[in-house]
């Protein structure tokens, strides 16, 4: 998905986990682009299968899942719940995964992503964590944390 303003998470006002900590709740809306990409992918696969002499298996899409799109949470590369950015108004972390509002809080995982890079995220998570760790160490040495 390309990020859009209707797709976000927030602290659930009532639900808590088994330790009484409020959980996140998620909102999402597929954009026209997301739906068109799913359509294009299915049509392309269909053409490839037909060209190879195969018969594409088809099952009807549920009304809430055009072109069999997976609901968020059903796929494996969910990213970006604590996005990074320059502005505290639109992001929680700076470019070093450090919270704008809490200087000694760093979030070094997939949460800092601002969009899904399409490819597998783990190496980018590691690279960002490495960069953030260098910064953290330097800031700690300077007594800034
Ligand atoms: C089946 C599968 C296959 C994948 N294959 C690939 C692949 O081949 N290549 C690739 O690049 N990516 C792959 N991914 C994606 C990759 O694993 C994730 O993007 C990555 O692990 C995300 O890292 P993370 O640190 O952000 O989150 P996670 O690895 O999910 O870590 C979150 C941690 O927080 C802990 N936690 C949650 N809630 C609490 C709490 N309240 N208190 C304390 N701890 C808590 C969890 O136990 C967990 O240890 C795959 C994912 C899945 C599920």
Q: Secondary structure elements and their pairing?
A:
Elements: E1 8-16, E2 22-27, H1 32-51, H2 122-141
Antiparallel strand pairs: 1-2
Residues 76-77, 109-111, 120-122, 125 line the site of flavin-adenine dinucleotide.
Q: Describe the largest sheet.
A: 2 strands, antiparallel
Question: Residue-averaged pLDDT, rounded?
Answer: 93
Helix content: 25-40%
Terminal Cα separation, in Å?
A: 35 Å
Which percent band covers the strand fraction?
5-15%
Assembly of the depicted chains: single chain
Q: Counting H and I runs of at least 4 residues, what is the number of helices?
A: 2
Explained architecture:
The protein is of the alpha+beta class and 145 residues long. It has 2 domains: 1-74, no CATH class; 76-145, no CATH class. It is built from 2 helices and 2 strands; from the N terminus they run ββαα. It has helices at 32-51, 122-141; strands at 8-16, 22-27. It has a two-stranded antiparallel sheet with strand order 1-2. Strand 1 (8-16) and strand 2 form a beta hairpin. The mean pLDDT is 93. Flavin-adenine dinucleotide (FAD) is lined by residues 76-77, 109-111, 120-122, 125. Residues 76-77, 109-111, 120-122, 125 line the site of flavin-adenine dinucleotide (FAD).
Can I get a quick summary?
This protein is of the alpha+beta class. It has two helices and two strands.
Features:
2 helices; elongated; 145 residues; alpha+beta; 28% helix; two-stranded antiparallel sheet; binds flavin-adenine dinucleotide; single chain
């Amino acid at each position: 998905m390309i990020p859009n303003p209707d797709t976000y998470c927030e602290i659930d006002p009532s639900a808590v986990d088994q330790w009484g900590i409020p959980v996140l709740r998620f909102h999402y809306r597929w954009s026209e682009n997301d739906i068109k990409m799913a359509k294009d992918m299915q049509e392309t696969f269909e053409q490839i299968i037909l060209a190879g002499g195969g018969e594409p298996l088809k099952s009807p899409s549920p009304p809430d899942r055009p072109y069999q799109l997976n609901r968020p949470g059903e796929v494996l590369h969910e990213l970006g719940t604590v996005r990074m950015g320059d502005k505290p108004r639109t992001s929680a972390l700076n470019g070093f995964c450090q919270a704008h509002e809490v200087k000694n809080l760093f979030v070094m995982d997939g949460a800092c992503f601002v969009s899904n890079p399409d490819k597998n995220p783990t190496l980018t998570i590691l690279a960002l964590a490495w960069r953030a760790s260098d910064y953290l160490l330097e800031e700690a040495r300077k007594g800034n944390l």
